[in-house]
């Protein structure tokens, strides 16, 4: 199992290996490493200081003591290249660091939470991006002085929006993924979700952008120096190019060395960015950009019979209404005051057509209503605790531990970037505080419990390497991992083929019986209700129209809507005539 948990780390190592196997990637990485090393070791490698001048040696050619010769002021060119590289590369690092510090956290925050911060930050980013960088740098130089480090700080501010926009866009996309919702439901905090499921998607593009922005910073800095508005006396590759240009007629060779250093560094950064992109995108799993963005449907339980009666001790909903704010400030109510109970050890089915409000009910219990939605009135008691209006932090503590969730789409609720083992272990470590080894052992047990064959191997696999039925078993195992009291299962078999559906229903029944779980089963399938549920609540247009023991409701429905639902079940419809070709039909006629 520990191997399974380490799968994600192994995969990251795999991307690095792919980078090294790419000749361009390996060559650019090697070149950059050599450049950085040489520049870092300038005091050791340089024959003399960058400003040490000997006018008598001006324009002297290469010699043993001065391998690249001397410049117009009799300064050693190799020493100036090495020391100048410190300023040039250091400046680029400073710019990138500032851009990263400003752009990435703000992009994460804006993409994940949206709202006012997102609007304000996007507005500022658009404004900064509209400014012409070179003009701003020239103006900064006039105001703040010619220190190249200050200009690089200004450049960092100017390129930060590039990181912001990229990160914000990716995060806003990932935030809607079902596996992020699943992580929330399993009780992980926002910080953990971002660290685990969001950063991994952002990481690749950010690394690529770093390489590109570093190249841009070096180019811009050199451009300023070349125009003579850079750091003046400070040795940089751009300043060397400027000086060499002034003597181009006399010693054109002086252009070569700083030009080569600049060209090699910028070229290597661009090639590295390309190779990195290839290495990170060539993953065994589905690339992040190709992940389906579909959201799952709903879950929930209703029980009109419970109104006014003693409230169930596990889940008790009274008068629950859910409303969404319209742009004009008014509310659109989508659930209109429902009552529902689930007792320990009881399976309650919630049935109804699409749009009847089942999902909104389930999400209210889980505390994960989409933006704009809220519980506008009523009470939801889960295991003795009122959760309507509960702050998110406290609601999160209940998810995973007290109430767990099995979603409809098994595949889109598993993060393609992590092994099954890793995805089972993470919530147990952070919700239950288990050590990695304990959680790994527990994950193996859970897979055995949900009857997955060869569980050790499955733990090491990625989601795309297992079947849909197996993925649903994994999600059920995940839901069980923190030993919840209430399980909300959202159409848990809809996405599976018929034979696998029966197996998964058997599994739910067994778990419920063994663990005394209360289950709220959202389904449109009355066959599933008849097979599994002790009681059923029928929902229509945001109201529970009928509720009662499954046998009674299916045998003797009281509400016309329940009767219509039952009439729509094909099994009860009169058998259709067998198909015959058109000619045969006309002959009979
Ligand atoms: N984000 C939202 N903003 C506004 N209205 C919404 C939103 N989400 C759902 N609704 C409305 O809430 C009502 C109930 O939707 P809900 O998703 O609970 O239905 P459902 O019974 O679960 O259907 P399905 O099985 O298709 O998911 C629908 O009329 C829907 O239009």
Describe this structure in words.
It contains 23 helices and ten strands. The protein has 589 residues and is an alpha/beta fold. A six-stranded mixed β-sheet has the order 6-7-8-3-9-10, sandwiched between helices. Helix 3 (23-40) crosses helix 5 (77-113) and helix 10 packs parallel to helix 11 (237-246). Bound molecules: adenosine-5'-triphosphate. Adenosine-5'-triphosphate (ATP) binds next to helix 13.
Radius of gyration: 32 Å
Question: Helix amount, in percent?
Answer: 55-70%
Ligands bound here? adenosine-5'-triphosphate
Strand residue content = 5-15%
Task: Give the termini distance in whole angstroms.
Answer: 69 Å
Describe the largest sheet: 6 strands, mixed
Rounded mean pLDDT score: 80
Question: Helix- and strand-based class?
Answer: alpha/beta
Task: Please tell me the CATH architecture of the domain at 32-46 and 91-282 by its name.
Answer: Orthogonal Bundle
Number of helices: 23
Q: For the record, what is the CATH homologous superfamily label of the domain at 32-46 and 91-282?
A: MetI-like
Q: Which stretches are poorly predicted, pLDDT < 50 over at least 5 residues?
A: 1-8, 283-308
Q: What is the fold-level CATH name, i.e. the topology of the domain at 32-46 and 91-282?
A: MetI-like fold
CATH class division of the domain at 32-46 and 91-282: Mainly Alpha
What form results from the Cα inertia axes? Answer: elongated
For the largest sheet, list the strands in their spatial order.
Answer: 6-7-8-3-9-10
In total, the number of strands is: 10
Membrane topology: Multi-pass membrane protein; Peripheral membrane protein
Main location: membrane
Subcellular location: Cell membrane; Membrane
Region (Disordered): 285-304
């Amino acid at each position: 199992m520990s191997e399974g948990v380490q799968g994600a780390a192994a995969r990251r190592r795999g991307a690095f290996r792919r980078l090294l196997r790419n000749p361009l990637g390996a060559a650019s990485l090697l070149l950059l490493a050599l450049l950085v090393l040489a520049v870092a070791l300038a005091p050791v490698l340089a024959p003399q200081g960058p400003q040490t001048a000997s006018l008598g040696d001006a324009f002297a050619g290469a010699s043993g003591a001065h391998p690249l010769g001397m410049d117009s002021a009799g300064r050693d060119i190799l020493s100036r290249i090495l020391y100048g590289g410190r300023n040039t590369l250091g400046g680029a690092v400073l710019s990138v660091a500032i851009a990263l510090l400003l752009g990435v956290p703000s992009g994460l925050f804006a993409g994940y939470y949206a709202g006012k911060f997102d609007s304000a930050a996007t507005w500022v980013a658009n404004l900064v991006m509209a400014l012409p960088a070179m003009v701003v740098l020239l103006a900064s130089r006039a105001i703040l002085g010619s220190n190249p480090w200050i200009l690089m700080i200004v450049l960092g501010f100017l390129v930060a929006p590039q990181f912001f926009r990229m990160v914000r866009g990716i995060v806003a996309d990932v935030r809607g993924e079902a596996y992020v919702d699943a992580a929330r439901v399993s009780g992980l905090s926002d910080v953990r979700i971002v660290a685990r499921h969001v950063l991994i998607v952002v990481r690749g593009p950010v690394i690529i952008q770093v390489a590109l922005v570093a190249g841009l910073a070096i180019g811009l800095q050199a451009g300023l120096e070349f125009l003579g508005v850079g750091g003046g006396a400070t040795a940089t590759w751009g300043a060397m190019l400027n000086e060499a240009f002034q003597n181009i007629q006399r010693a054109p060779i002086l252009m070569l060395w700083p030009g080569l250093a600049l060209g090699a560094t910028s070229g290597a950064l661009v090639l590295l960015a390309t190779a990195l992109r290839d290495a990170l995108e060539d993953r065994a799993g589905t690339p992040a950009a190709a992940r389906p963005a579909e959201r799952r449907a709903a879950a929930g339980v209703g029980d009109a019979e419970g109104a006014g009666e003693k409230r169930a001790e596990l889940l008790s909903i009274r008068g629950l209404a859910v409303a969404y704010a319209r742009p004009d400030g008014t509310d659109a109510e989508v659930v209109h005051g429902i009552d529902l109970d689930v007792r320990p050890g009881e399976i309650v089915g919630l049935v109804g057509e699409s749009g009847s409000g089942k999902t909104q009910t389930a999400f209210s219990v889980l505390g994960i209503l989409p933006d704009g939605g809220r519980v506008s009135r009523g009470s939801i008691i889960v295991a003795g605790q009122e959760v309507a209006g509960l702050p998110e932090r406290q609601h999160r503590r209940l998810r995973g531990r007290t109430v767990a969730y099995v979603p409809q789409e098994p595949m889109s609720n598993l993060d393609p970037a992590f092994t099954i083992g890793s995805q089972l272990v993470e919530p147990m470590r952070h919700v239950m505080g288990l050590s990695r080894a304990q959680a790994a052992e527990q994950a193996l047990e859970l897979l055995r419990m949900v009857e997955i064959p060869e569980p050790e191997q499955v733990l090491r696999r990625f989601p795309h390497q297992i079947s849909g039925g197996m993925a649903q078993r994994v999600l059920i195992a995940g839901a069980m991992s923190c030993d919840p009291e209430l399980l909300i299962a959202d159409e848990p078999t809809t996405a599976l083929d018929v034979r696998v559906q029966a197996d998964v229903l058997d599994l739910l029944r067994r778990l419920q019986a063994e663990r005394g779980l209360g289950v709220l089963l959202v389904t449109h399938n009355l066959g599933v209700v008849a097979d599994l549920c002790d009681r059923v609540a029928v929902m229509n247009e945001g109201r529970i129209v009928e509720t009662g023991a499954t046998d009674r409701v299916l045998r003797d429905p009281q509400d016309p809507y329940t009767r219509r639902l039952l009439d729509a079940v094909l099994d009860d419809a009169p058998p259709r005539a067998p198909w015959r070709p058109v000619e045969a039909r006309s002959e009979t006629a």
